[in-house]
Amino acid sequence: VQLVESGGGLAQPGRSLRLSCVGFGFTFDDHAMHWVRQAPGKGLEWVSGISWNSGTLAYAESVKGRFTISRDNAKNSLNLQMDSLRLDDMAFYYCTRSTFGTLAPPDFDYWGQGTLVTVSS
Amino acid sequence: QSALTQPVSVSGSPGQSITISCTGSSSDVGGYNYVSWYQQHPGEAPKLLIYEVSNRPSGVSSRFSGSKSANTASLTISGLQAEDEAHYFCSSYTSNSSPVVFGGGTRLTVL
Predict the structure, then answer these.
(1) Distance from CA of A15 to the nearest CA of B (A)
(2) Which of A44, A105, A115, B32 has the most CB atoms around its CB within 10 Å?
């Protein structure tokens, strides 16, 4: 099992970035997928999750209305569209797999290596 | 929503046992048996240690164990080893609109 994120980088406040994650070595549409972020030197913060069939989406209050999660099971890919970026969105963003296809239980058994999002003017 | 409460740091000597607590509420830890624990070494991604309160994924040492009482979950590490020095995070499913909450993390130092 491998999860590979891409799309991180530098963005100005108010601008957008799109993160992607591709899964290898497992049946992608058997699993819910999530994004978890970690500001440098800080703790983990759950950002968003999507069920196996995109039927259930969920967001942290801090990103609701600004971020959009999606998946393409045909391409084994997970995406996070991040709009109206703020300084406090700066963090490593991890793609993570849930053991089941639903958002509960949120057992994150595999993680990507993380992609860094820097928000600065 | 508020993060789950963990001690900032704990320490122990090699061979000893330590316990890390994770305190929430009836909306999260106390309401569901969906507590997980993760280990994170510097510069690495988190690793799942315990899921659904007390279950270990294959490949995780039996020195790691989890439990829960009321609104507090606990991770116990027995027979401490130098390699256990890391940050540990708990998480729980929650009935709030955002379904997952993490603890603030605990730094374990092996003396």
Answers:
(1) 24
(2) A44
The 10s digit of each residue's pLDDT in A7-65 is 999 999 999 999 999 999 999 999 999 999 999 999 999 999 999 999 999 999 999 99
CA B51 and chain centroid, separation:
9
DSSP per-residue codes, A57-116: EEE-TTTTTTEEEEEEGGGTEEEEEE-S--GGG-EEEEEEEESSSSSSS--EEEE---EE
Q: Which positions in chain A touch B40 (Cβ < 8 Å)?
A: 44
CB A28 within 8 A of CB A22: no
Radius of gyration of chain B (CA): 13
Rounded Cα gap, residues A56 and A114, in angstroms: 24
